[in-house]
Design brief:
The protein has about 150 residues and is mainly α. The protein has helices at about 5-20, 30-55, 65-80, 95, 100-130, 140-145.
Length: about 150
C-alpha cells in the first residue's frame, strides 16, 4: 500500500473506530437513529453489489481491495447502528427481542466481511469470488426485516 492510499484507508478506519465509541442515541432522535441504521445497511448492500459486479467482470478488478475494505468497515459499524432500541423503519421488533441471535449474526457478518477484505488484499478477484456467498443477507432479512411491499 502506498502512502497516497494508506491515508484515506486509515481515515476510514479511524472514523469507524470513533463511531463505535459514540452511542448514536446520545445525539439523535428516533427518526435519526432509524435513518442512520438504514444508511448503514444500504451501504452494505451497495458494497456487496459493487463486489459482485467486480467478480463478474463488469467493474474494474483493480477496485476489489478498496470495495472489500469499505464493506468490512461498514459491517463493523452496523451493530452500533442497531444498539439503540428504536423500533420502526425496516427493522422488526424481533431485532431487540432476539438480540443475542441478531447480534451474533452481525458479528458473523463482520468476520465474513473482514475475511473478504483480507482475501481481496492478498489474492484479488479470484480469492474473493468464492467468499461472497458467506455474506448472504437473506437469512437475517427473512427474520429481522420488514418485507418490502
Amino acid at each position: 500500500m502506498n502512502r497516497s492510499t494508506a491515508l484515506p484507508r486509515l481515515a476510514w478506519a479511524g472514523i469507524a473506530f470513533v463511531g463505535t465509541l459514540l452511542p448514536i442515541s446520545g445525539f439523535a432522535d428516533d427518526q435519526d437513529v432509524r435513518d442512520y441504521r438504514s444508511h448503514v445497511m444500504k451501504t452494505l448492500g451497495e458494497q456487496f453489489a459493487a463486489l459482485n459486479q467486480i467478480t463478474k467482470g463488469k467493474a474494474p478488478a483493480a477496485d476489489i481491495a478498496t470495495q472489500a475494505e469499505v464493506l468490512s468497515i461498514t459491517a463493523s459499524v452496523a451493530k452500533v447502528a442497531f444498539t439503540p432500541k428504536v423500533l420502526g423503519g425496516e427493522s422488526k421488533p424481533e431485532v431487540w427481542d432476539k438480540w443475542d441471535d441478531f447480534s451474533k449474526r452481525l458479528d458473523d457478518m463482520v468476520a465474513a466481511a473482514a475475511d473478504v477484505a483480507k482475501a481481496a488484499k492478498q489474492g484479488g478477484v479470484p480469492a474473493v469470488t468464492p467468499k461472497l456467498s458467506s455474506l448472504s443477507c437473506k437469512g437475517c432479512h427473512d427474520v429481522y426485516r420488514v418485507a418490502k411491499k
